[in-house]
Amino acid sequence: MSVRDKLAELGLELPKVAAPVAAYVPAVRTGDYVYTSGQLPFRDGELLRTGYVGGDVSPEDAKELAAVCALNALAAVDSIVGVDNIVRIVKVVGFVASAQGFTGQPGVINGASELLGKVLGEAGVHARSAVGVAELPLGTPVELEIVAEVR
């Protein structure tokens, strides 16, 4: 089954690639890899949420935002090579704007990891980092970048 078919089966579709908010591009290919820039939880051009996880944003809501970021990252890869040319997701790096004392970053970034697994199966299993930070661009609670091996 193609990745596009799997997305449709899950009731998902790739969004338009979010326009950069500074001087960068959404994704770059070098050799057999596509590296995405940090993807925020944008939907239809709107940032879905601002705030701090473990404060005014619940870990459960942040986990859903991380899944949106992962879908946006797949769209960025798609814009370079086509999502059906993904061989494997190699690495995911997730950043979580964390309230004082919040240490549940891995659970938040599971939203992205779980989505990638549902969409890509074994090819979605990846190495990962989940990092708590004081601030993220535009006040977003979650930011995600991926490295994909491609054909």
From TrEMBL:
The protein depicted here goes by the name: Endoribonuclease
Per UniProt, residues of the Endoribonuclease L-PSP/chorismate mutase-like domain are 6-140
InterPro entries given in the database record? Endoribo_LPSP/chorism_mut-like, RutC-like_sf
Highest taxon in the source lineage: Bacteria
Per the record, a Pfam family?
YjgF_endoribonc
Which Gene3D superfamilies would you find in this protein's record?
Answer: RutC-like
